[in-house]
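Obj: model holo form, ligand = S-adenosylmethionine.
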Amino acid sequence: MPVPIVPNIIERLFLLRMNKGPGLFLDIFGAGAFQAVRVALKLGVFESLSGGPLTAAGIAREINANERGTRILLEGLESFGYLKKLGDQYSNSSLTVKWLLASSSTNLADIIDLGENHILEFSRMYLEESIRRGKPPMTIYEWFDQKPGSWRVFQLYSAAVARMVGDELLTKLKIPKDARRLIDVGGGHGLYSIMFCRQNPLLSASVFDLPQALTMTDELISVEKMNGRVSLKPGNFWIDDLGDNYDVALMFNILHAYSPEKNIELLRKVSRSMNSRGLIVVMEQLADKTVSQLAKVGTRFFGLAYLAALGGQTRTFDEISEWLLKSGFSNPRRINFRRTPGNSLVLATKAN
Ligand SMILES: C[S@@+](CC[C@H](N)C(=O)[O-])C[C@H]1O[C@@H](n2cnc3c(N)ncnc32)[C@H](O)[C@@H]1O
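Output (holo structure tokens):
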């Protein structure tokens, strides 16, 4: 079964819906499963199975670990949905093959590292204080500046998410054929710029971000053979000039960090840098009511994470639309993603 920890129908009805058993154990089991996957990735358990099934003893030899410890880990991973067992042989589940192997184009293993060493660690330190005072004592970005290597892990994580949403993004969002210049505001890794330039041969893009957030962007641009089409624009968007004459502006996962007033200030600055009839595209986890339980849980999870990390929060479509209308844009409209529930685009056009 390619989904971690799913109670069967009787467990769902009897233990959870009728509240006969402590459903909160699911959260504790989830936290334990997360730690097991993190350790399995670190030890190379899943990669050791990329050549085919192995016994527990064989895996222990491959990863150079204690056989009994390995066996207990494997039993856990099988029950959590990350491995399959046939006889005494283990193999990777389809979940693991698609999302956790280095050879997969949708490899999200970096998310586990960022989750454990950054987002969860920061939340452990500052969620309580953020709830008491409305914000953490420093933002997670200021904390990254003190923690060598963490900007890179953060960009690897964001790039993994970009690869995950990329196909659906490119299918659902067609930027105007005559667009020539794109600015990716807080674009970090630059993958979204790379994707749009690849889809639109006449387009070139500037990835605007803090210098320390752009450390791996050049590398990605080279790997993707987009030198000359995608360039870096290091700067602080509160202080520095963004450039001008842009036909498209991306603001992906930026607005959740700031107050409405600051967002209007930033959107006005972006608007001034754009040509008339230009297209602005905001990507956020929207806080609107949803019929999907997964979308609800996802956006609430991010709401807590943004509060603890940045003093921020998720926002609704109406809030973002209002800011856009106050910043020189018209006709705000929305595109929802199916594969990443809760994640949406808000589009608007630069008014004349
Ligand atoms: C959540 S990340 C989003 C990255 C990328 N847009 C994406 O969606 O994957 C927010 C980005 O905003 C950048 N950022 C934060 N404050 C900034 C500032 N004052 N000036 C420029 N970039 C900033 C961060 O460095 C980071 O790369």
